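Hi W., the coenzyme A complex you wanted:
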Amino acid sequence: MIEYKVTPELDVDVAYELYVASTLGERRPIDDRPRFEAMLRNANLTITAWDGELLVGISRSITDWVWFTYLSDLAVRESHQRQGIGVELMRRTQAAAPQAKLLLLAAPKAKDYYGHVGFTKLDNAWWLLPGETLK
Ligand SMILES: CC(C)(COP(=O)(O)OP(=O)(O)OC[C@H]1O[C@@H](n2cnc3c(N)ncnc32)[C@H](O)[C@@H]1OP(=O)(O)O)[C@@H](O)C(=O)NCCC(=O)NCCS
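Structure:
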């Protein structure tokens, strides 16, 4: 039985352990603690999944509630993957701001996942990386 919660004040050490246990930590600056803590604290929609006392999943987003929601991190503990937890976290993220488009960047390990669960792939997305200069 998995319990889902909105968790604005998620403990940093508990989150760190999940990022490692899901492998998402390989692609996030989790060992830069102030930066990782800022990522957690400055998100304004964090939904977590719990198996008893154990944190097993997270959906961490920035949303304006009415136009877009940027889903920055979706992670499920390896031991709990492929049980529908990722989809349920995203369903609740979408439901929290139903007028908003849900946007994300897929990690290499999840490149086929989002299409499989219903997302549309875009060809008009753009980014400017930190330190890159506008011309
Ligand atoms: C990607 C991730 C969040 C998926 O979460 P999950 O709870 O395991 O996925 P779900 O159980 O919700 O899967 C739903 C469906 O997608 C499929 N699926 C799961 N992972 C998949 C993947 N990596 N690629 C393609 N399909 C996948 C499942 O088999 C299931 O299919 P079905 O409904 O036809 O049976 C999880 O595997 C994870 O945390 N991976 C490591 C971190 C990561 O890469 N996160 C994404 C950052 S963008």
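Residues 22-24, 74-76, 81-87, 106-107, 109-110, 112-113, 116-117 surround coenzyme A (CB under 6 Å).

W.
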